[in-house]
Automatic annotation (TrEMBL):
GO biological process: isocitrate metabolic process; tricarboxylic acid cycle
Family membership noted in the UniProt record: Belongs to the isocitrate and isopropylmalate dehydrogenases family.
Protein name: Isocitrate/isopropylmalate family dehydrogenase
One Pfam match: Iso_dh
SUPFAM superfamilies (alphabetical): Isocitrate/Isopropylmalate dehydrogenase-like
Length: 327
């Protein structure tokens, strides 16, 4: 069976790390891929006036899965619509420390399960008077239940005993109150063990004792911020992959942005993008191959070439070649 994969490099280092992930996937003999490239981001908007052309939307909608690199100034006009195109309701962001790296917090293994459709990222903003703006935060019972069901299922399937529901219901009593009550009810119905945590206090505890946490179920904005915080504990954004999961389709991207300051220098860390490709393999049912990619990345991080963000002087191409050699 051949799987059609939409490949959207985007801007900046997306143009370098996305081909790296494709090279790794092409090195896996057991899986056949047909890679079809689409355009998105700043450059295509400058040319056409659209950051995410209709052709690219259709490409992502029709593909078995999508690999996306990064977008620059047009990020909100690219990634949010792309997530909608694939019907993504869950953003899965693993944050792991690696034995070979001098992480701020070793032995960290946390997966953030972030609600992906609502909250303030609905983009309902307006200027109601001169110098006065508003943003509407949307939280629904259906979306909260769906992300909680996914989060508890993910924890069970992947062997995580610790589940935490992040919220700020002490202040946002109606919206986060609904999220907390709904997610907690899912845990009770499943007779699952879980904790709840105020998201600001959780940020502190993640810095101090991240080893106490496994799966963290979050509203949209909180998941975005807490996962970036966790990246700092394990070695930086260059190590964090993510998956945007829909009912049938999915989009895979690194957590990092387009990094225009190093774009074109062949020094971007491809690890997050390659690990995102490993999650793509998992999604398509190739768990063994996904694990092999993760093991190869871990081996290279332990004893192979490293890009400058990790204290080395290797190029993107060097690291990619080393991962493929391990495979």
């Amino acid at each position: 069976m051949t799987h059609e994969i939409a490949v959207i490099p985007g801007d900046g280092i997306g143009q370098e790390v996305t081909p790296a992930a494709v090279e790794v996937l092409e090195a896996i003999d057991a899986v056949d891929f047909d890679f079809v490239e689409g355009e998105a981001g700043d450059a295509v908007k400058a040319e056409t006036g659209e950051a995410l052309p209709k052709e690219t939307r259709k490409l992502a909608a029709d593909a078995d899965a999508t690999l996306f690199g990064a977008a620059g100034e047009t990020a909100a006009d690219v990634i949010l619509p792309l997530r909608q195109v694939v019907g993504s309701f869950a953003n899965v962001r693993p944050a792991r420390s690696y034995p070979g790296l001098d992480a701020v917090q070793p032995d960290t293994d946390i997966v953030f399960i972030r609600e992906n459709t609502e909250g303030v990222y609905k983009g309902i903003e307006s200027e109601i008077a001169d110098g006065v703006t508003t943003c509407t935060r949307v939280i629904t019972e259906d979306a909260s239940e769906k992300i909680a069901e996914y989060g508890f299922s993910y924890a069970k399937q992947n062997g995580y005993d610790d589940v935490t529901i992040a919220h700020k219901a002490n202040v946002m009593r109606t919206t986060d109150g609904l999220f907390l009550d709904t997610a907690s009810a899912v845990g009770e119905d499943r007779d699952a063990s879980y904790n709840t945590a105020l998201m600001d206090a959780l940020a502190m505890h993640l810095v101090m004792t991240p080893q106490d946490y496994g799966v963290v179920i979050c509203p949209n904005l909180a998941g975005d911020m807490l996962s970036d915080l966790a990246a700092g504990l394990v070695g930086g954004l260059g190590l964090l992959p993510s998956a945007n999961i829909g009912e049938e389709n999915a989009l895979f991207e690194p957590v990092h942005g387009s990094a225009p300051d190093i774009a074109g220098d062949d020094v971007a860390n491809p690890s997050a993008m390659i690990l995102s490709a490993a999650m793509l393999l998992d999604h398509l049912g190739y768990d063994e191959q996904g694990d092999a990619v993760r093991t190869a990345v871990e081996t290279v991080l332990d004893s192979g070439p490293r890009t400058p963000d990790l204290g080395g002087d290797a190029s993107t191409a060097d690291v990619t070649a080393a991962v493929i050699d391990e495979l």
